[in-house]
Amino acid sequence: MLLTDTLLVAGGSLGIFVSFVHGFIGETKVARLATHPQISSKRVIHALIFLSAVYWFLGGTLIVAAPFLLDKSATLLSAIIVCTMYGTGAAGNFWATKGNHIGWVLLAIATALIALGMLL
């Protein structure tokens, strides 16, 4: 396996790990603590946590499989899409938590690994 493929797989695997941790902690800790009086806001919190976890998992799965199943141009396009997904997730997480959360750091590392894998 080439170094570029290894970097893509590492970035995608980290993204998959983040998605599982985010989904688990989000559903067991954060969503249950949401005690806003409006029911619709609870639904929004649940949807945000669940859909972002699914989004990151699918992106990670795509980028882990891309070096083995796709040609170079399709792998590059997949990497650009996943870098955008993870980068916006990291930026949103940083903004929402004012930097006091490990999630944005892990997504930023995954983004950097994938970007480095694209550039080499």
Structure commentary:
The protein is mostly helical. The two termini are 14 Å apart. It has helices at residues 3-33, 39-69, 72-97, 102-119. The radius of gyration is 15 Å and the shape is elongated. It has one domain (3-119). Helix 1 (3-33) runs antiparallel to helix 2 and helix 2 packs antiparallel against helix 3. The protein is built from four helices and no strands.
Largest beta-sheet characterization = none
Beta-strand percentage range: under 5%
The ordered string of helix (H) and strand (E) elements is HHHH
- Mean pLDDT comes to 87
Uncertain residue ranges: none
Secondary structure category: mainly alpha
**How would you describe the shape?**
elongated
Instruction: Note the total helix count.
Output: 4
Give the helix proportion (percent range).
over 70%
